[in-house]
Amino acid sequence: MPEPQSGEPHVSGGQRATENGAIAATGLDGTMDLATTEGETLEKGLGNSDAGGPADKARSLWSDAWRDLRRNPVFIISALVILFLVVISLWPSLIASGNPLKCDLSKAQEGSQPGHPFGFDGQGCDVYTRTVYGARISISVGVCATLGVALLGSVLGGLAGFFGGISDSFLSRITDVFFAIPVVLGGLVLLSVVTSNSVWPVIGFMVLLGWPQISRIARGSVITAKQNDYVQAARALGASNSRMLLRHITPNAVAPVIVVATIALGTYIALEATLSYLGVGLKPPSVSWGIDISAASPYIRNAPHALLWPSGALAITVLAFIMLGDAVRDALDPKLR
Amino acid sequence: MGRYVIRRLLQMIPVFVGATLLIFLMVNVMGDPIAGLCGDRECDPATAAQLRREFGLDKPVWQQYLTYMGNVFTGDFGTAFNGQEVTELMASAFPVTIRLTIVAILFEIVIGITLGVVTGLRRGRPVDTGVLLTTLVVISVPTFVTGLLLQLLLGVEWGWISPSVSSDAPFDELIVPGLVLASVSLAYVTRLTRTSIAENARGDYVRTAVAKGLPRHRVIRKHLLRNSLIPVVTFIGTDIGALMGGAIVTERIFNIHGVGYQLYQGILRQNTQTVVGFVTVLVLVFLAANLLVDLLYAVLDPRIRYA
């Protein structure tokens, strides 16, 4: 076993060895035993190489990816930006003392002045306060829609990929159908009837039209994972379907889903703003960047600042999520190593 | 080849039926079209019932769908509620959007692939990093923001273009709107080409071609590009449908009277016939473009044979 280390790595290393041993018992003894010892030496070598590191657990794809991410400046910057956005969307009053709905028409379209760094919009509302408060809707729509899409898409796609057969081809045809409908168009049609002014219809629409994208990814990666030898071994050992799915396939198939979902989060935020811009997403008096940009566009010539600040905030938010997704993909993609 | 095309055409049928049925149901959820006809006042019940009968709206949805599809295949897309033939609207709207899409696709092909090849061959150099960062920014700025900003800068501040497009929408007025429409896809094409080129540049056949002493441009054009373009062609092909349907935002910003404009008006006025008709055609375009992409594979990659 490896050199003296903290308690935990020993345990997990040992567990892995017994698992290998158990598989070996069912297979051809000689070769599999070799594989087991090889695995042990490999692990020993890995353990030695970074014995000084802080987290010396068994090196999974995840711990490897995490080590990569912590050293990636792109990840650190985008994660900090996202952390900041999440904090101000939970407690906007931390950095903006005003009320986003308190407007003074006499100050309409005025530029930057002390206490109001971003100036005023067409209704005389403080652009800075509204931009800060606008984060809440964007972040909550993005996060909730992504959670919903990822959950629905990966469950449906994963099950279809795992079981195959009729349900799989049925699901594939359904995803084809959804892919044939332009997203913005579907949003216009579905949301134009909605009268309730909350984020839930927008989120619901995104989940409804967004899940096929994730389900396609999940299906593909489950099919790849399913063919691995360890899944065959688990099946040979008589593992139930649910055990194979949860213990063996999911951990190995979930990486692409996470990557696509992170990048999609950015696009959902952009989509919410686009729908609000088209007048079907959220409507005033909700405070959303899309609404503010839409409201500022008619007098863009006189008061471009009212359009530029929320646009900038929107772009930075989307950029942060896309960069985060990019960094996570680089860390999780073994091909780039 | 012939058999493959037929099989693909047959596979398209369920997708077509599903997509049109889905949009039909969505539009039905959209609300009572008759209520929109009477303007702001409440409809007189007798008139409403008569209109309902006239438009066939008293029948169940599936029957409406079948009747509608039957008519579509004889070229009858019905009439909008203001009495204008939907086909007439299409005849005025589609040429405009097709021109806009052509401009956008040209931008994707010319700029996107060029940038992708340049950066893919110089991975890790300043050019590569610069272009990569630019594509990230372009992807993160939503189309309507890009559009409004370009309109403000080029149209209003500097006066290079007219801020809104005339109703004829000739090609030269569509250059900037086309660029705006293409922007996000352009960035994706660049990234996709870059990855693909960078991966293939390490391929054995490229090394062989270089070792044979072929000139560099010939290696890139004949060997590298041809093998690297397959994923890019797939993307651009599927993008045609998305561009035509996604032109709503661009057309609204630049006041272009194309498909997006008609759809937007149709949705706002609850004009179900217009919406369903246009979406049906868009779905057909999407399916046809996908088929075309699959057939193009054989041209690009002779290893693929369709039996």
TrEMBL record, chain B:
Q: What CDD domains does UniProt report for this protein, alphabetically?
A: TM_PBP2
Say yes or no: keyword Membrane present. yes
* Keywords of this entry: Cell membrane, Membrane, Transmembrane, Transmembrane helix, Transport
Keyword hit for Transport: yes
List the membrane topology term(s).
Answer: Multi-pass membrane protein
Q: Where do transmembrane segments lie in this chain?
A: 12-31, 96-118, 130-154, 174-192, 228-254, 274-300
Entry's localization field:
Cell membrane
Q: Where is the ABC transmembrane type-1 domain?
A: 94-297
InterPro entries, A to Z: BPD_transp_1_N, MetI-like, MetI-like_sf
Listed PANTHER family: DIPEPTIDE TRANSPORT SYSTEM PERMEASE PROTEIN DPPB-RELATED (PTHR43163), DIPEPTIDE-TRANSPORT INTEGRAL MEMBRANE PROTEIN ABC TRANSPORTER DPPB-RELATED (PTHR43163:SF7)
| Family under the similarity heading | Belongs to the binding-protein-dependent transport system permease family.
Q: What is this protein called?
A: ABC transporter permease
Source species of the chain: Streptomyces ossamyceticus
